[in-house]
């Protein structure tokens, strides 16, 4: 049987599905894979359009409990909420009420298929919503302040259940403000109709909702420090944790190759 690599799973909506894209020169999934190469497989389970209710229903088809041939789930990053926060619609409704959203997040992180692996779990907040942009195309079904309340709910669930937090909302907003000369954040946020200013969110959220390559770089900068603590600071940092041994410390591999 082939040796299974432990997995880092990106479980979320289109914001994780699109993390595999290399269209603009940077790919979040590729960057994470490069960082943990030979130690973990990075598995993308981003599902465009999904909300937490959809995700919870199909979770057993996405993450299996431990068993023969089942790779260990070592890290789990969860990013849902952009669709849950959409306002209710009579058809094609993605909305999940805030209390239900929090309940769904708890049900996901405590699901037996997940807890049996004892992974390191990180909840990722949805990024800011640039309502000034989304209102041009989505007939007002997404609101900046509503979306922000779902990001706050993620912070609360992470704190209440002692799991890791990746505050993508804050990282994107702080970065956008730093790149928007003269903007006074004390008066509100970029992308909020109250301030009427998109600022640098225009480059980070081209359609007001999804991340640009630069925004994925911001996400990676936040995620990066959470990975690799298993081998950082060791005497042989470059090889510790390899699933298959480095060729320099596995002379038997060469011997096998040289056998007639």
UniProtKB/TrEMBL annotation:
UniProt xrefs under SUPFAM superfamilies: SGNH hydrolase
UniProt superkingdom: Eukaryota
InterPro entries membership: Iah1-like, SGNH_hydro, SGNH_hydro_sf
Pfam family, one: Lipase_GDSL_2
Domain (SGNH hydrolase-type esterase) ranges: 10-218
Gene3D superfamilies: SGNH hydrolase
Protein name: WGS project CABT00000000 data, contig 2.13
